[in-house]
Amino acid sequence: MNNVLIKGGLLVDHQSVSPQDLLIQEGRIAHKGYDIDLPLGTALFNASGLVIMPGFIDIHTHFSLQVGKYTSSDNFASGTLSALAGGTTTIIDYITPGREEDPREAIKRWFHNSRTAHTDYGFHLSIPSFNADTFNVMTEAAGLGISGFKVFQAYPDRLMLSDEEIGLIMQHARKLGGVVFVHSESGELISSLQKEALAEGHNHAAWHEKTRPAYGEGESAARILELVEKTRCPTVIVHIGTKDVIEVLKQAKKKKLPLFGETCPQYLWLHKKFLERKQNEGNLYVCSPPLRELEHLKAMWDSLVNGDLHLVSTDHCPFTREEKTKDIKNFAEIPNGLPGVETRPILLHNGAIAGGRFGWKKLTRLLSTAPAILSGLYPQKGSLQIGADADLAIFNPDMVTSLSAKDLHSNCDYSPYEGMLLKGGIEFVFSRGRLVRHGDQFETNPGQGNYLARKEIKAGDLNLIRMEDYPWVFS
Length: 475
Ligand SMILES: [Zn+2]
Known about the structure:
The protein has 475 residues and is α/β, with parallel strands linked by helices. The chain has helices at residues 76-85, 103-113, 134-143, 163-175, 187-199, 206-210, 214-231, 243-254, 266-269, 272-275, 294-306, 321-325, 344-354, 360-374, 459-466; strands at 4-7, 10-12, 17-18, 21-25, 28-33, 43-46, 51-54, 56-61, 66-67, 70-71, 88-95, 120-126, 148-152, 179-183, 235-237, 259-263, 311-312, 392-402, 421-431, 434-438, 441-442. It is built from 15 helices and 21 strands. It has an 8-stranded parallel sheet. The protein has a 7-stranded mixed sheet with strand order 3-2-7-18-19-20-21. A 4-stranded mixed sheet has the order 5-4-1-6, with no helix packed on it. Helix 4 (163-175) packs across helix 7, helix 7 runs parallel beside helix 8 (243-254) and helix 14 (360-374) runs antiparallel to helix 15 (459-466).
């Protein structure tokens, strides 16, 4: 079913909402218009009452990621099937080399692991150590279509880089037409607070948050702002959950700097009280940066509304209930990360549209368009333009979705959103013109996803994210 006419639905992208028909030919969007006649050899898809959006893009996942003695529970097959079920048709996973490892080996490993993907996919490259070879590795990676580079201001023992090193990486990334993604927390501060808390016998998961204070995130983000001002490198602070970082993003906006902010559903729906649950139940909510007080959560929603935050990804990095809770003696031993690749779109829809905060265009921009632009994939992905890949998430506003781990497609055996009742649901999903989800039926095989080599990011496309001009970014 590669040639399909979708009739009677509401077409939504980041710029418009209109009741048009959409014609798919050879896996791409061929035509949009009112009352298109059915061409010969074309299947008819009746979409009356349904909302048709560009397939969602999650540019922050960790499939088969080894962290100490644990490996995240989803591999590329289960993780991308889970993504597809929720309407996400493209994912970007972080290649994360060991500190002593040649990053080229890690790149090979990720290409090998990703052969079972159900969705289209690409990569960012984490840079856990800086040396004489780093620029060569970045240039080679960009040649392979990997132009997002991740740096850490946290985890001094395995990932953290100095400000000077991050600045040099930004300079080189900008030359390559790439983007730098930053995990912004104050690594040294956290290490000393953790040592102190453990020495005083504080073991409970609640201390995970207490030893990673919000002001530390603000302090480290302010250092990133300075580096962006110096280098003019397009940069994204990832998984933001504190209003301290939002203050830094406001300054970036005022100064017209290309510094963008990503948040995740856990920082929009979950808060510190979950960490305080008795026994080891709080462990199930441990991720970094940690869940915060409700005032921070409210600030995240406000920032999506007023445009201080620019995209919503997941940081999908699940571990099983047993791994999170069994034989864990203190908060510092809990593997960090939550599941979320399947539930992001429906959760955001409920906060946005059902919650009355903002409309379809902004929802599309946060879930699809901005992630596509920041990954160098726009407009092939993240748009319904003529010629774009026919990746579609089709939403039924009349459905009710009840979230439960048993109904989700991840290998993770719990959901932090267990029991939530949500309005609407994803009913159909197209991937490059093929109907891959039809209600509860899936027509998809591991390995059908295509690798996406990313292109240079254009300054003009960056403007679409914030609707502002950055004329000098690549000048
Ligand atoms: Zn992450």
